[in-house]
Amino acid sequence: MLGYTVLAQSITDQQLNLVIARLAEGAKQSWELGTRAQALTELNASFYSVFSSTSLPPPTSPPSSVAMKVNLTDVFGIAANTVANLGNGSNSMTPEALISADGAAGDPASLGVAVLLANWTGFQPSRSSTIETFDVSNTTAKNFDDDGQSSTTVSSNSSSSAAPLSTPSTAPTPNANLPLNFAGAARNQLDYLLTVVPRTSDGAISHRVSEVQLWADFIYMAPPFLSYYGVLTNNQSLVSEAYNQVKLYRNYLRDSDANNVWRHITLGTGAADSGHWSTGNGWAAAGTLRVLATIKNSQFANSMKSEQNDLKDWVIEILDGMYGNIAKSLYKPSGLFPNYATDNTTFEDASSTALLAASTYRLAVLEGIYHNLPHAEKSRKTLSTSSHITSEGWLTPVVDPINWTNEGSDSPEGQAFVVEMTAAWKDWVAIGSPGANEALGFYMRDYSSKSLHSGPYLAFTILKFLFASYISVLMHIFFVGSLVLKRDPECHPLKDTQRIDRFMSVLYK
Q1: Quick one: how far is CA 349 from the chain centroid?
Q2: Which segments cross the bilayer (predicted)?
Q3: Before 397, cis peptide (omega within 30)?
Q4: Is residue 483 within 8 Å of residue 493, measured between CB atoms?
Q5: pTM for the full model?
Q6: 122 and 60 in contact (C-beta within 8 Å)?
Q7: Regarding predicted confidence, which is higher, 79 or 87?
């Protein structure tokens, strides 16, 4: 049974340290750095993670018993380097992305939470701090021409048919003791998203700078920053805007003909990708969960109950779509997702598998939704083996983060997903591994939810269970009954019954 094996086949500390080291080496792009900062926060400084039970806004200083600032050194180092590379830009009132060399409008915002947290806690970079440096001039924007080939030329175009959202009246209070203006950098990033980046006519902020184009990736990058900014500044309209962006993106990208999994890209004249990219669905689920956790633990929790229910249902919708009907029929025996969830001919991808498993554990802890845990456990155990984490600490096989239809040799974001999966799993184990015995893997969620409790997968699972039960009864009657009738002293009813039970345990799987 699953409940007896949750501690087995775990990533070792040595493996995890290697994964983290390779992540530090490989993360160069804005979204890679932002994802690295988030992963390290969840693993090493969970007190400051939105998934912590700590109320938001968090304390400006951690409890004395928690050496949290030490654990956040790398996270704050990423934030410090980001702001330092802006030069005097953070001291101006000009809307500006945290990494302006990136052609994506959404990706730089992934660094926003780390920058806000550095300001909030009063982090001061010093000579003794371990701070990696990176050259933003060498970042490669994820921009593609119609043929899908990489292009490094991104034109500036902030026109939009939608009226710009108003700049919020509140901003983080700059920490006067800090040599870097983290607050100003965060404010400028926010203003850039709200007033410069193009958007659709109904208000969905573009993931691209040069044109209106929506990517599933955006949900992990921008809405968590908007919601966290709103909580720290007591600005509910910003938190509502984070929710609204998730809602709008879902309206554009959710494919009701594919069991509600999301398409990767829509709109724009560049390389649209209408396929159901597994990593894109992971980005969407994980980002939505971060917004949900931020609201749930904030001062706005009571006034935003409906929004929380929606966000929860949308995460369940993605995970059920990925693990359920369509994806289930194509699910690789290895426990890995194909690069495109509805195309079994695409290569296996460990990156998306790790992120979707992380999201499943987070949903279990945050909302008590357990029915996909057997899938997450299978994925985690598979990824813990040496065939998927090399002796150097690289996750394999992985999609190329830049050219997402191709298999890559390594993936910094994939490294971060392993860290996030491990952190989420540890948090789940820490509360007693609830739902570990959901071996049937079908809906057992609260009936007060507005989500459906029916559907092809549920019907199939129930019929499968009833059929297995019927066969079990017949076979028990046949074997035990025949033994009684024959009164054969050489037969052992207990042994034969156990044999049938073993057979039935295979049928139940």
Answers
A1: 15
A2: 457-485
A3: yes
A4: yes
A5: 0.79
A6: yes
A7: 79
